[in-house]
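Action item from last week, closing it out:
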Amino acid sequence: MDGSKASNEATSSEILFEQALVTEIQIQSICGEVVTDWRDLGIVLGVASVFMDIIEADYSASREKASQMLLKWKQKEGNGATVGILINALAKIERKDVAEKLLATSSETPFEQTPVTQIQISQICGEVGEQWRDLSTVLGIEPALIVEIEAARSASRERARKLLLDWIKKEGKRATIGILVNALETIGKKDVVKKLGASSSDIPFEKTLVTEVQIWSICDEVGVDWRDLGTVLGIASSFMDNIEADNGASREQARKLLRKWITKEGKGATVGILIDALEEIERIDAIEKLL
């Protein structure tokens, strides 16, 4: 294939992408970037000032204001709410950085087709709550597993987590964001879909280094389980004995442990590894603090 033909094909692909309708997931992926420019964007997109005044009064966070405005535009325009129009509007308010982010998705695996991660499960299982059983039916979970989950008599949040983790294990790469989004919409949990869409950047988040602020945020939750956490993280027993000998509060012992782990691992002390360790000792509450 010559260079000219390849260029033409790329252009055709880009045109098709710009003619595609904007999805709710795409909206959630950019509203954190739009933030304080949401009203300027709304004006360019033709959203009524009266509606934007209502958004201003009802929502405090700029991200949520941008989300509500774009969802209103999508609803109002219907088949006219295309990626191309949104990109042009972003360019007009000089937010080409956001337009480029949106356009870049045309050459990547669509977010809807990416596998669901354990971090995303941890983010939404509390929102699914009592409707975990409805979700399991839509996802095609075996009745035997549902009976097993119910027999455990755990909180609804933990039941939802167990359900989704088993679904991922069973489906593998077929357990995609798109399938989960469709299932959530089927059971009327569009509020959870928004949260899932907002988590599209969480895969690199797993690779970020744990910070001092994050350590402080989870020490209370780790509490008396600090030693179990240290074992999973590979901290020497002799060092943990020294921490114990200091007779400090469990919060302080957890903090010393995690600081030691960060010093020892350096660039290997990532959020993803810490989350895996917390899951192993069943401290989901601490994971929520990290997220």
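Closing note: The longest helix spans residues 3-19.
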